[in-house]
Design a protein that fits this description.
Chain lengths: 221, 119, 1040, 191, 304
């Protein structure tokens, strides 16, 4: 079964290919294995104590949000930088690259196609990292609950720290959601990234169930 | 008299040269060449001529050597002419042989047909 | 002592006798013919020996016992003995060469051949003008007979044209002779000379006809279509006889009769010779047919000798040597070339690559070509050098210039031909058939050529037998060429080491020379070490590499101009062969050679002017040039700048350096370019700031723009080695700018750049060359990510690039610092800013090279690459040690140089005890900078290590790719057109304007040649008309 | 406009002319003559713009209808050319490609292949993904594909979800009973 | 030539002050920017929090050795610029290690960190990094032209490259500042500074929406913290460089902080007002007006 899938959906550029080296020898390249790290992630150690509390405060007061609008709800994010909402005063700012972001806002419905990119972006973020599900669609599919192409429950695919209900929630709700997230982090509960790593097999099974053309390594470093 | 001869010689040479340069037929060119050499030979003879001179044959019974030196026709040009004629003959013969070979090769006597080598 | 008359007797008798042999005895009669030729050679040789050792005096032989004018007289003096010997030798060798062909055709051909040689002998010996005519005619007829040795349609046509032309010519000669006789009363040359015919107008016409006709026999440009046809169509073995033998005899005759005309005629002859030399070679540039090309070259060379004969009154004592050296050179080389042509049997020069199948033949071919162009150690080099010196000394600069232009034109087609031979496709099936009887004559002329070069030494001031020592070693290397490369490599390194040790005393004490000597020799040895990673035999590599280094060593050790020029040409020749070894190097080596030759000629002219001023060959003559000093210095500077590839003269460099082999590139880039710098430094030192004020100012600007354009072009390159080559152009621009400032700081900066450029460019070319070989591509965008595979190479290139970019703490900054100070003190602000702008552009290509090769994405086919060979890395790390030493202790290197420079310039730099360099503007402590930066680096690295936990190693596709994944390394690696923005903004600066300019120049020359050669319409009649027109024009100019 | 339609009727036996409004007509052509008709419309009658190709699944009639909407910029007229294909039970209806007339047709056809399962043999990249990635179920826009069932089987529906009729729900829960309440400042539906 | 521990500690103290001032300054600038937009803006302590957060992250990914030491190069570049320049005019303990060299050293040392960082970023293999670097280098090359012209004009004017001498020449009143004694050079230099600071309109290098963040796109956690440390230092040091050249230097920390603030503010202010240049337009612009002004400045300084 696994083999069949691979044959059917493996992208041409990911097929095992043979190339001729400059010295004439033939090299076999398996892009998925050779070009991507195959390592499994390990959970980081969660410390306790006043120093860690202080660091948690720092983590909470410096939320860097990945600028990745996954669905219709992403239109609710730009107003946050306007004078009316001004998220900067809460230590929240947007970053353009997942490597420098901590918070991933899944803004609204998530199609299977986007889910794949969301997983990739999430896995590339450094821990500790947080996922905020924005809108009903991330909770139970919302108005797209019966669509053939959007997920129903985000928490089956990514570990969600906070949900913000509504269709769509307004920016204020988003800010309130961030405040909630901050409380969680300050309380030392912002380690869902570890949960993801620990239950990686379950998450991967769920992800692969609907992403048929996986075409990427199991874990995108 | 010698000037007439010399003029004739030059005229012949120039005619010959003109023929050599203007005719397209190889045989005519060679004829031109012959006329050219003939003209030159005539000029040579004319150069050596001394008016009223005698044949340059020296023997003890004839005039004295001193007198002879003044009166005989200069023998050197005549000797030269002989050589020159011989050489002219040789060259003409060789030319004709060439023309024959060329004609065998291309069946043409027109000099314009033999321009394979150029530039 | 056998009388010279027996030469004629022997030949005539033999020719007659051969007729009696039947067809069955062909081989026998062939040997009889050779024996006869050998006998003739023996007689003239015997006379020559006797004259050389002084046991004989000039003999006059009178036929029939009368004295002139009543008899024909022959003369046998040293000149006649030499020339008859040459003719007989060529006859004998030609006979051996043509043996089979003559045998096939039959006894008659042998008779004709012997008669031809005999007639040439008589032409040389006779003193009787009519006898001369007779034997000229006999020669013509015999020639016409020999032309159709190969009975082809073309040779028949050529023969007829030849006959027509010589017929007209001889008719005119006859008229001339008869009038000369009429007015002089004698047919004897001496008699005619004594009669001084020039006094009367009619007599002058007679002399005119005689000399003009003899000139026409030498096929002057442009009335020489018939001669060219003969060269093209006849058997090459016979072509050799015509080119070497007949022309030699003709030249001697001209030399013999010229006194008839008096001084004015010498001038005419030299002008005719010049026109022929330049015109023929110029028209030859368009020629593709080998034999016809040789014809053009022959006619050109004969024109050159004719010029020299015409210059006899000017040259004085040197005449004999110059004329004979040039003639002998042509004689031997052209005979050899024709003979080789007879073996190759290819009409078109583009098909001549078959020559590569026999390396001995190839080497001899190369020797002939180089001899013709006038490279050392061949006689023409000595002859031409002496000729130019004498001409300029006697105030005939324009003649010298024209001669050099003609030589250059000859180089244009000769080197094109050589390029075809060395690089064109070679079909495997064809086999080169080399019979021994054809091979031996070629070997003999080659050996004679080399010997003649050797024996030319005493005739040229400044020449030294010592220059032949490295050549002997090179010869030895050539002889052991069959050995594997590593043995030859070891031998070469040992030889170079020994030679350096031998020469070191010559440069000891002179710091400037010592530095360059070290760069040339030490750099040479290091670059040779790289050669250990080459397997196989590397045929022909070591002799030419050592030739280049021998040239460089000569340049830097010599104290006279001749030695300098000798070394310069030797180096040029060696480097040409090194460069052309690259796979796609043909056009680049060609343009390199043309620029080098042109540059060398400019240098030669400059030297000539210096020599004319100082009347000495010592280099010190450059100090106070009184004859046209501005011109002289400009010529010299431009000449040297062709080697340093300054703007306008740089177009050869990128291809030549970029396409060369991996270990040749560092040789020609890091080491060779310094020769030009050395020349410029030497020149500027002698010139002084006052004399060359304007020139230096212009050169400063040229240097600045060279730096800018070179670096800018480098940053737009996609080819790794070309990028480095363009970077060399830029770096050399800095150096030119720096030394043009003529201040202590400027020169110090120049020296710093020289040393740094040597260090880092050697590293870069070695490493990049090694990688290019490993990676199988030159293109930067096809590499990438190699840092994981070749960390040591990366480190080396990184260090070299930091040095190049001039970043502290490495030594590149020393150059920049000196530069800023020098620029401000000199007051060349705007130029300085251009140079600094160029400097920042250097970052761009430094980054591009590092990024494109080592960083970014590793390609599929490079996944199994290994680190480059230790034989590259060891010299590279030696050089890196040098960089670090220079960087940490700049004082150790720069202080002595500064002190040395203080002899020439006011000192503006002080060194404090702690290594602090102080000028009135600024201070810099290289030592302290090094310490501080290294300690900072360690501290910061420790800090980062402290706050960083265990890192997770990633693979190349584990990157943020806008939530996608990369598709293939090729599409993910950013390299091609990397600086697109910069290109859009200022890319117009490097639009190939200069290349286009030179292309247009060469196109113009070739088009001109193409138009001029339409004169040769192929019609025999037209050629006859040419002759008539030539005579008329010549007459109108000379007498009318 | 009229000329083009007349041509269609006369030359290609088109039928069922339906003029929606001036300048927009729909007409049915047999599928064997469709490409010829389209070519004629493009080359001779001036319908040079392909606006769209779309499909309708008439599952009850066993028909898969293709509609080519062509535009004539000169006359500002549009013709919708309907082609009725016989609907197959499993996807795989086939129609001639028209990408040689308009290169952009290949994208429409690719979409139809993916969403309706209508094949256009010869159309470039016809089997490539268009918007779905790795889809291996039935083409989702065919009406016999039960998308709710598919979603429930695939997407882990969250238990306890209630569904309301939006209109009723909003009337009941959100809008004020009394329209006068709209002016009541205390009432804030967003709260 | 003083390598004593005492000297090192003073230098370290200076560095610490600079670092914190740099952070504070960036927060202040952001607040000013926010005010301009009608927002409140970040809390003043935000830069420290961000730094702390970055250091407390638990993921460290490495693309290779060069990637690892790229930030080290960068920080060495920033710190080095600080160390090679006297901080406070006329006070020996604040002269740092400026005895090693002067303005020329600093001009070239600028590029040290840049090139090292470029190496590190491009080892990650990210095309965005490479594109950003290629833009950055292209722009840097153009910026250097007016910068060099300004420096040369100053060197001609004062006949020295030494910071302390240039600063000394500007002492004794505001009218002695280069800004007033050599206004053209100052204009050229300040225009070059706009490019050197990489604020809008010259910030295509890290255009976040197009090439995410540009060169540091792959840097995260502790690596990014080093880069941010550097940028805090570098902003102050660069401002100080221009302050020393054109605004009379500083004879006390008080003046230092005020002047660097205003110098830096100029670039931020311009950045807030103008939109972004395309890279080729930016190069053309630098090679046009600032260069022309610079050339005039040099000519004026040299021949007037």
């Amino acid at each position: 079964m696994e083999e069949d899938k691979k044959d059917k959906f493996l992208a041409p550029e990911n097929e095992i290919r043979q190339v001729t080296a400059p010295d004439g020898s033939i090299i076999e390249v398996n892009p998925l294995e050779d070009y991507f790290s195959q390592d499994r992630p390990k959970p980081y150690k969660v410390r306790k104590g006043p120093v860690e509390d202080f660091l948690n405060w720092a983590r909470a007061e410096s939320l860097w949000v990945l600028g990745f609008g996954t669905g219709c709800g992403s239109i609710e994010i730009p107003p946050l930088v306007t004078p009316r909402f001004d998220m900067y005063r809460f230590g929240i700012q947007m970053r353009a690259t997942p490597r420098q972001s901590n918070v991933f806002v899944i803004s609204g419905y998530l199609s299977v196609k986007t889910l794949k990119r969301a997983i990739r972006a999430y896995e590339q973020m450094p821990s500790p990292k947080y996922v905020v599900g924005l809108g009903s669609c991330t909770i139970n599919g919302g108005m797209y609950y019966d669509s053939y192409n959007t997920i129903n429950r985000l928490d089956h695919y990514l570990p969600v720290d906070a949900y913000i209900a509504g269709c769509m929630p307004r920016p204020e709700a988003l800010l309130a959601g961030f405040e909630g997230l901050k409380k969680l982090i300050k309380a030392g509960k912002g380690h869902k990234a570890n949960e993801y790593v620990e239950n990686l097999d379950w998450y991967k099974a769920n992800q692969k169930k609907i992403i048929k053309d996986w075409n990427m390594p199991d874990y995108n470093w | 008299m010698e000037y007439v001869i010399m003029t004739t010689g030059f005229a012949l040479a120039i005619f010959g040269l003109y023929g050599l340069l203007s005719q397209k037929n190889l045989i005519k060119i060679i004829i031109g060449f012959s006329i050219f050499t003939t003209g030159i030979n005539i000029v040579m003879v004319a150069i050596g001529y001394v008016r009223g001179g005698i044949a340059p044959i020296l023997d003890n019974e004839g005039i004295s050597q001193i007198a002879a030196q003044k009166s005989i026709v200069d023998p050197v040009p005549q000797a030269l002419v002989l050589t020159s004629i011989v050489i002219g003959l040789g060259v003409t013969a060789l030319m004709l042989a060439y023309v024959m070979k060329l004609y065998q090769d291309k069946k043409s006597l027109n000099i314009n047909d033999y321009k394979n080598l150029k530039w | 002592m056998v009388g010279p008359i027996y030469i004629i007797a022997l030949a005539l008798g033999l020719a007659f006798f051969l007729g009696f042999f039947g067809k069955s005895l062909k081989t026998f009669s062939g040997f009889v013919m050779l024996a006869g030729l050998a006998g003739m050679t023996f007689i003239s040789g015997q006379w020559l020996m006797a004259f050389v050792d002084g046991s004989a005096t000039t003999q006059e032989i009178f036929t029939a016992g009368f004295k002139p004018p009543f008899s024909i007289n022959l003369r046998m003096g040293i000149e006649e003995a030499t020339f008859t010997f040459m003719i007989n030798v060529i006859g004998l060798l030609g006979g051996i060469y043509l043996f089979n062909r003559l045998k096939e055709v039959g006894n008659s051909a042998m008779s004709v051949f012997i008669v031809l040689i005999m007639s040439l002998n008589v032409i040389v010996m006779t003193r009787d003008i009519f006898n001369l005519f007779v034997f000229v005619e006999i020669g013509s007829i015999a020639t016409a007979g020999m032309i159709i040795l190969d009975k082809t349609s073309k040779s028949l046509q050529a023969g007829l044209k030849y006959l027509l032309a010589t017929g007209v010519i001889s008719g005119l000669l006859l008229i001339g002779i008869i009038f000369a006789y009429y007015f002089a009363g004698s047919l004897n040359i001496d008699g005619i000379i004594a009669a001084n015919l020039m006094a009367s107008k009619a007599g002058a016409v007679a002399v005119f006809l005689i000399i003009a006709v003899l000139v026409l026999e030498l096929k002057p440009f442009p009335a020489n279509g018939w001669g060219l046809d003969v060269y093209e169509s006849s058997n090459p073995g016979f072509g050799a006889i015509v080119s070497a033998g007949t022309a030699t005899a003709g030249l001697f005759v001209l030399y013999k009769v010229l006194p008839m005309g008096g001084d004015a005629w010498y001038q005419y002859i030299s002008i005719i010779g010049l026109i022929t030399f330049v015109g023929s070679n110029l028209v030859g540039t368009q020629q593709k047919i080998a034999n016809r090309l040789l014809g053009y070259s022959s006619i050109g060379q004969i024109g050159l000798v004719m010029t020299v004969i015409g210059l006899q009154p000017i040259l004085g004592d040197a005449f004999a040597f110059i004329a004979f050296a040039l003639l002998l050179n042509h004689f031997l080389a052209k005979a050899g070339l024709f003979w080789i042509s007879g073996i190759i049997k290819k009409e078109n020069i583009t098909d001549w690559s078959a020559l590569r199948k026999n390396s001995a033949l190839l080497i001899m071919f190369v020797i002939f070509i180089f001899a013709l162009i006038g490279f050392p150690p061949f006689p023409s080099f000595f002859g031409k050098y002496e000729l130019i010196m004498s001409l300029i000394s006697s105030d005939n600069i324009w003649v010298a210039v024209v001669i050099l232009i003609g030589s250059f034109a000859e180089g244009i087609y000769m080197f094109r031909w050589l390029g075809h031979v060395l690089k064109n496709e070679n079909s495997e099936e064809e086999v080169l058939d080399i019979p021994w009887n054809k091979f031996i004559p070629i070997v003999l002329v080659t050996v004679s050529l080399l010997a003649a070069g050797f024996y030319s030494v005493p005739f040229v001031a400044g020449a030294n037998y010592f220059y032949f020592v490295p050549l002997a070693f090179i010869l030895f290397l050539g002889l052991i060429d069959f050995l594997p490369a590593y043995i030859k490599n070891t031998v070469s390194i040992a030889g170079m080491g020994y030679y350096s040790w031998l020469l070191y005393p010559l440069v000891e004490g002179d710091l400037m020379r010592t530095i360059f000597f070290a760069i040339f020799m030490f750099g040479g040895i290091l670059t040779l070490v790289v050669g250990y990673n080459k397997s196989g035999k590397r045929e022909g590599f070591y002799p030419v590499a050592l030739m280049m280094y021998a040239g460089l060593a000569t340049i830097v050790t010599t104290d006279n101009m001749f030695g300098f020029f000798f070394g310069w040409e030797l180096m040029t020749a060696g480097s040409y062969f090194l460069i052309i070894r690259g796979k796609r190097s043909k056009p680049h080596a060609y343009s390199y050679m043309l620029f080098s030759v042109a540059g060398a000629y400019l240098i030669l002219l400059g030297f000539g002017l210096a020599h004319a001023s100082g009347q000495t060959q010592a280099l010190i003559a450059l100090k106070d040039i009184s004859v046209l000093p501005t011109l002289a210095y400009t010529l010299l500077a431009v000449g040297f700048m062709t080697k340093t590839a300054s703007l306008g003269l740089h177009i050869w460099l990128p291809g030549a350096h970029g396409e060369a082999e991996s270990d040749v590139s560092p040789m020609v880039s890091a080491v060779l370019l310094k020769a030009g710098v050395f020349g410029l430094m030497l020149l500027f030192l002698y010139m002084g700031e006052q004399t060359g004020d304007t020139l230096l100012f212009i050169l400063g600007w040229v240097g600045a723009f060279t730096a800018l354009v070179g670096n800018l072009a480098a940053s737009f390159q996609e080819d790794a080695k070309r990028m480095l080559a363009y970077s060399s152009i830029g770096q050399l621009g800095y150096i030119l700018f720096a030394i043009a400032m003529m201040t202590q700081l400027g020169w110090l900066a120049g020296f710093t750049y020289v040393i740094n450029h040597f260090l880092f460019k050697a590293i870069l070319f070695m490493v990049v060359g090694g990688i290019v070989v490993k990676a199988g591509t030159h293109n930067l965008y096809q590499m990438g990510g190699l840092i994981k595979k070749m960390p040591l190479s990366f480190l080396a290139v990184l260090i070299a690039m930091i040095t190049m970019a001039g970043l502290p703490p490495l030594s590149g900054f020393a150059g920049k610092w000196l530069f800023y100070n020098a620029v401000i003190l000199k007051g060349w602000y705007i130029q300085g800013v251009i140079v600094f702008f160029a400097g920042t552009i250097a970052f761009l290509y430094a980054f591009k090279l590092l990024h494109s090769i080592f960083l970014g994405q590793l390609k599929d086919n490079h996944r199994n690459l290994k680190e480059i060979s230790p034989s590259i890395l060891i010299p590279v790390y030696i050089l890196i040690a040098g960089i670090f030493y220079f960087s940490a202790f700049p004082q150790d290197v720069l202080e002595p140089i500064g002190n040395m420079l203080a002899n020439y310039f006011p000192s503006t730099l002080e060194w404090a005890a702690d290594g602090n360099a102080v000028t009135i503007l600024s201070n810099w402590n290289g030592n302290a900078v090094m310490i501080i930066i290294i300690s900072m680096f360690v501290l910061v690295l420790g800090y980062l290590w402290l706050i960083t936990g265990k890192t997770q190693k990633l693979e190349q596709f584990n990157i943020v790719y806008s939530a996608e994944r990369p598709f293939r390394p090729e599409t993910t690696h950013v390299s091609h057109n990397m600086f697109a923005g910069l290109n859009k903004a200022i890319g117009f600066l490097v639009a190939p304007g200069i290349t286009n300019f030179w292309n247009n120049v060469s196109k113009m020359v070739l088009d001109f040649a193409g138009v001029v050669r339409r004169l040769y319409s192929g019609n025999g009649q037209v050629y006859a008309i040419h002759i008539i027109i030539y005579i008329v024009v010549f007459y109108l100019i000379s007498i009318g | 406009m009229q000329k083009g339609i007349n041509n269609l009727i006369e030359k290609f036996g088109a039928s069922d002319l339906e003029e929606r409004r001036p300048g927009l007509s729909f007409i049915t052509v047999e599928n064997t003559k469709a490409v010829a008709a389209i070519t004629h419309l493009k080359d001779i009658d001036g319908y040079t713009v392909l606006s769209l190709i779309t499909a309708v699944d008439w599952i009850e009639d066993g028909i898969m209808q293709l509609t080519y909407l062509l535009n004539n910029p000169a006359e500002i007229a549009e013709i919708g050319l309907r082609v009725m294909l016989e609907r197959k039970k499993e996807a795989g209806e086939s129609m001639e490609t028209i990408h040689h007339l308009w290169p952009n047709a290949k994208k429409w056809q690719q979409e139809l292949k993916e969403m309706f399962g209508i094949n256009f043999p010869g159309s470039p990249n016809i089997n490539d993904d268009f918007i779905l990635e790795g889809w291996d179920a039935a083409p989702p826009n065919r009406r016999d594909f039960d998308t709710k069932k598919f979603a429930e089987e695939t997407f882990f529906p969250r238990p306890g979800r209630e569904t309301h009729d939006p209109a009723e729900h909003m009337k009941k829960n959100m809008y004020p009973k009394n329209p006068a309440d709209y002016t009541n400042k205390k009432y804030n539906p967003n709260r | 030539m003083d390598y004593s521990i005492e000297k090192f500690l003073w230098a370290f103290l200076g560095l610490f002050i600079i670092l914190n001032w740099g952070m504070l300054m960036s927060a202040l600038m952001r607040r000013i920017g926010a005010k301009l937009a009608g927002r409140i803006g970040v809390p003043l302590y935000q830069p420290w929090v961000d730094l702390l957060k970055l250091m407390s992250l638990k993921t460290w990914l490495s693309h290779g050795v060069m990637y690892y030491i790229g930030p080290v190069f960068r920080l060495v570049g920033g710190v080095g610029m600080f160390l090679f320049m006297p901080v406070i005019f006329g006070i020996e303990i604040w002269s740092n290690y400026s005895f090693s060299g002067d303005l020329i050293l600093l001009l070239y040392f600028q590029s040290f960190g840049m090139l090292g960082m470029a190496m590190g970023a491009s080892e990650s293999g990210s095309p965005h990094a490479a594109i950003g670097i290629s833009r950055g280098l292209s722009q840097f090359a153009a910026v250097e032209v007016p910068m060099t012209l300004a420096v040369i004009a100053i060197a001609i004017q004062h006949q020295t490259f030494s910071f302390s001498e240039i600063m000394a020449a500007q002492q004794g009143g505001i009218m002695n500042w280069t800004l007033f004694t050599n206004p053209l050079a100052s204009i050229a230099g300040m225009l070059a500074m706009l490019g050197a600071m990489s604020h809008s309109p010259f910030n295509l290098v890290k255009a976040p929406n197009e090439i995410p963040i540009g060169p540091p796109t792959e840097y995260h956690s502790s690596f990014l913290s080093v880069l941010r440390t550097n940028s805090a230092i570098l902003h102050v040091v660069e401002a100080a460089l221009f302050m020393n050249l054109f605004f009379g230097g500083a004879d006390s920390w008080y003046m230092y902080i005020i002047k660097t603030f205003f110098v830096y503010f100029i670039s931020v202010f311009v950045g807030m007002v103008f939109p972004r240049f395309k890279i080729e337009d930016s190069i053309r612009w630098f090679l046009k007006w600032p260069t022309a002004i610079g050339i005039i400045a040099v000519i004026v300084a040299a021949y007037w």
